[in-house]
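sanity check this record:
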Amino acid sequence: MYAIIEVGYLVATLSFLGGLKFMSSPKNAKTGNLIAALGMVLAVVLTFIAAITATVPYTNLIIMLLAIAVGTVIGKRLSDKVEMTGMPQLVSLFNATGGGCAMLLGLVEANQMDPFATILGNKILLIAGLITGAVALTGSIIAERKLAGKVKDRRSKTVIFSARILLGLMVLLPWFYFLGIIPIGFTAFMYVLATLAMVYGVLFVLPIGGADMPVVISLLNSITGIATAFAGFVYGNKAMIAGGIFVGAAGILLTILMCKAMNRSLMKVLAGTFKKSKTAAVEEEQDIKETSVSETALSLSFAQKVAIVPGYGLAVAQAQHICGQLQQLLEKRHVEVDYIIHPVAGRMPGHMNVLLAEANVEYSHLKEMDEGNENMERYDAVLVIGANDVVNPAAENNPGSPVYGMPIIRVYKSKQVIVMKRSRGKGYAGVQNDLFGLDNCSILFGDAKVSLQEIVNQLKLV
């Protein structure tokens, strides 16, 4: 039976790898998700079989089955009710449950183990799993609250300094404990560490701005995976080890890639700051050209090739379905329509992809930033919906700008740019967008959903 369980864990691990491979392509992401989910089901079933053969009390097994049933029902209801615009919040809550699970495992094992008989390595693994899990738990909850607009950024020196003190304590206290300087029991010590880690998780996320949430969510997801891997080492469970390592590694790589896409270091993101301008140049007053719904509809109807650049404003306005209708109307007029997506657009990795998928936009229409930039001069019109800093030419042309060096979608190279904005406000970086003053750019002010609906209505009449 042991050999069968081990082979089953190997199959589950391979399914995780296969799922990740398929998820690298938006077209095959659903298949990849299904493969990985089946692997997880197999791992859970094998764990139950192993528990039965190890004479685990049936009462414990019944409690676990009930917990799984309750969790399944709650998860299904949450996923059914959540709108695609709220998907980042749901992902953050799922991260929180994973981190909380790892923390509770550490506390339960600390209560059951004999501190004198347990080897030092297992204690270190328990501590590492507990700390990372607790940080992921509270950090993800704060991230969810910030994404929902319930918690504001707190970048005070008190918050940042307190977070650094707690981080130092979480590193130093285990050393002091194992050296015998802290005269308390191992279980009590674990509860102290759990408390410190949960408080640190709150202070860790508080200073980070909403526009950096894609990076934070990816990082917290990675921390949850690492916590799971630590727990897997404690239990000797190969599926937990492999799954945790895959999630942790993928999350770290994605975090680094997104930081690169923003031209910012991870430390700058976590500090919630943008680099300062090298010069104290005064921003020139821009001659912004406003346009109307009818003019926009006319420009799109006479174009042969159109690009749509979605941003967080599209998600806020919940205008993805109308955007899909606009695409269909233009295609009926034999207009070629593409969506160019910046790597950090939205509030989580792949946020724009998820929104457009809900609107039944085919993956063949989605273009990555580099591909879109290569063909930008061929577009007769580019419609920017709710994006700001990611299309700012200052990132390439102004060395003194805080966004200088950040890869952008070069919409300014197209024949005509129409930017849909709610107001004259600046982007998250707080800098003037040089695009708005260019001769080939015009601004359509108003709510994105309302404006898009009016454009669709106009196109039906043209």
